[in-house]
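Fig. S4 source data, part A: sequence.
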Amino acid sequence: MRVSGLTLQQVKQDIVSLKGKPIQMRVNRGRRKIETYSGVIKHIYPSVFTVEIDKSNIDSITYSYSDVLCGDVKIKQVE
């Protein structure tokens, strides 16, 4: 279910504007499992984007724009 009042195109534009900048992510995995990551958006593709995670054994994670649109992934810029 969609949470925000944004469209998919607006979500894509927001993520493109954050490319290469440090971000903080909060990912809802379901059943009260919430993970928090710090990283940088590295690659942007038509349907997905990849995030390089800092200080983790995971190299990068891929998310779809619909994950952000539905509220499963929340991204904010860190300064």
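Fig. S4 source data, part B ends here. The domain at 8-77 is CATH 2.30.30.100 (SH3 type barrels.).
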